[in-house]
Amino acid sequence: MTDTTLVTSTGDGTGKTAITLALARLASDRGATVGYMKPKGTRLQSSVGKTLDRDPMLAREVLDLDAEVHEMEPVVYSPTFVEGAVRGTEDPGALRDRVRESFDALAADADAMFVEGGGRWTTGGVVDLTDADVAELLDARVVLVTDYDEPGDLDEVLAAADALGDRLAGVVFNRVADAAFDGLEADAVPFLEGRGVPVLGVLPRVRELAGVTVGDLADELGAEVLTDAPTDGFVERFLVGAMSGEEALRHFRRARDAAVITGGDRADVQTAALDASGVRCLVLTGGQRPSGAVLGKAAEAGVPVLAVNADTATTIGRVESIVRGGRTRDERTVETMADLLADHANVDELVG
């Protein structure tokens, strides 16, 4: 019988993909034949779902699987799909059958299946396919991945634990900053375990997993890079330049490892950003090129300038998703996460 673990999360961008694949790699290293599935494809390049989720494609590469991507991702959970579901054009029963059939095919030759949830644990509710529903359908134990900054974050953990019930194997806190680490281990972990919620790991924040390179950001945005500056710097947060140049400079000077998003016509904001040492790149919106003076200043400062055709509001949403998602795009990322789990988590419990 195949042992099945579903990895879900309290929110987008918690490192769920890296943890799912790292657990599968650790199980494989212990001699198990592993399989991977993401029933609801949510990490799409196309809003209508024409481009498949990248996570199953990464799983094929990292885990050396030959399964077809459409089997690994039976439901393309695009905005168009959700709109159709709300209008009643999707049959929840048929979708459940599709997920189950794909799972059975993938699990036929596997000792252990690792199933990645979509988005957050509530994603899929419009078709009765939340991660709690999927766990019940596939008879899976569940690992809940979450961030932690302050005690109030435990509200989400307890809500998810209540919904998952006895299927919850435990919680893994990921990307915990040094400032929050001691309080989490001294207070939050005992609190949760006192409420019957096991904590299976507390993983420290590691820079190479916390952000994306400027090059990655440019690729994900489909941006034109207007300078020859190196694009290997890390971006861990973003700032929006919507104020005057003088106000912007005060704002930007407090930033570290930031991308500044502003209109291509805002030379005052662009100049202020280039005067701030913590700005790693400019993302200029609206399809407008900056002045030669700005490009010259950027070249002198070694700051890459990216240009996109989308408006500022759309670009903010895309950058937020990319930066929060972090680096889950290559084998090195998975290996780093596997090492973190081995050092800071109960791997025996996590891999079943």
Question: How would you describe the overall organization of this protein?
Answer:
This protein is α/β, with parallel strands linked by helices. The chain folds into two domains: 3-209 and 328-350, P-loop containing nucleotide triphosphate hydrolases (Rossmann fold); 212-324, 3-Layer(aba) Sandwich (Udp-n-acetylmuramoylalanyl-d-glutamate--2,6- Diaminopimelate Ligase, Chain: A, domain 1), CATH 3.40.1390.20. It contains 16 helices and 15 strands. It has a six-stranded parallel β-sheet with strand order 2-5-1-6-7-8, with helices on both faces. Strands 10-15-14-13-12 form a five-stranded mixed β-sheet, sandwiched between helices. Strands 3-4 form a two-stranded parallel ribbon. The radius of gyration is 21 Å and the shape is globular. The model is unreliable at 46-50 (pLDDT under 50).
Distance N to C terminus: 13 Å
| Helix vs. strand class | alpha/beta
Count of individual helical segments: 16
- Total beta strand runs: 15
- Say what the CATH topology of the largest domain is: Rossmann fold
Strand content: 15-25%
Q: What is the CATH level 1 assignment of the largest domain?
A: Alpha Beta
Q: CATH H level of the largest domain: which superfamily?
A: P-loop containing nucleotide triphosphate hydrolases
